[in-house]
Amino acid sequence: MALEYCSGGSLDQKLLETPLKPREAAELVTASVNGSRRVWDAATGRELVGEPVPADDHDGPAVSPDDRLFLYTGEGNVVLIVSLTPDEEELNYRRYKTRPRPEVHAEQAKQLEKDDPFAAAVQRALEQRARGQLALEAGDEAAARRHFEQADRLDPRKSPPPAHP
Questions:
Q1: Which residue, 119, 125, 122, 123, is CA-closest to 105?
Q2: pLDDT category, 134, cuts 50, 70, 90?
Q3: What does the pLDDT read at residue 150?
């Protein structure tokens, strides 16, 4: 088993910040799908054979007692420890990945136009919505309103279905 800390410092630093006693904080308990439970030394990644296994009174995800860390198994025998409170670097990464990108929707609309006009129309509406979000972030409420209204007009999902004769 290997232990790895994701984002924001080393495992040792994180364990020192917890309110647990150092010995307790330095142990991890794993549970397998077959029900077996084992205790590990968090600093070395070695199993603590013969160490008493705490009672299984936890019925949920692997979260530290102070609710600040989440543990899960990655590929192989790696336990990843992730902070549940994202730091500024993580927040910036999330903002970057979820930022409005009208050019992506415009390109997708262009590619879909011939084979799937409905999907192309949805992408054109999403392009206008992204432009509205960018205008709003820039403080241009009038431009944002125009883009949002255009998005509503273009979005085929907002139109009533055609009447059947």
A1: 123
A2: very high
A3: 96
Q: Give the residue-averaged pLDDT of 88-92.
A: 91
- Give the chain's mean pLDDT: 79
Q: Which amino acid is at 141?
A: E
Q: Which residues contact 77 (CB under 8 A, 6 or more apart)?
A: 1, 2
Q: What is the pTM of this model?
A: 0.51
Which H/E stretch holds residue 107?
helix 102-112
> What's the token pair of residue 37?
């439970």
First to last CA, the chain: 67
**HSE (side-chain half, CA atoms, 13 Å) at 57:** 3
Q: Do 1 and 40 contact (CB within 8 A), yes or no?
A: yes
- What are the tokens at 80? 């990843």
| Residues 94, 55: Cα–Cα separation, whole Å | 37
- Sequence spans of domains, the chain: 2-89, 99-155
pLDDT above 80 (res 159)? no
Cβ neighbour number for residue 132 with a 10 Å cutoff: 23
Closest CA to 5 of 87, 81, 86, 84: 81
- CA–CA dist 52, 58 (Å, integer): 16
Tokens of 97: 């990945």
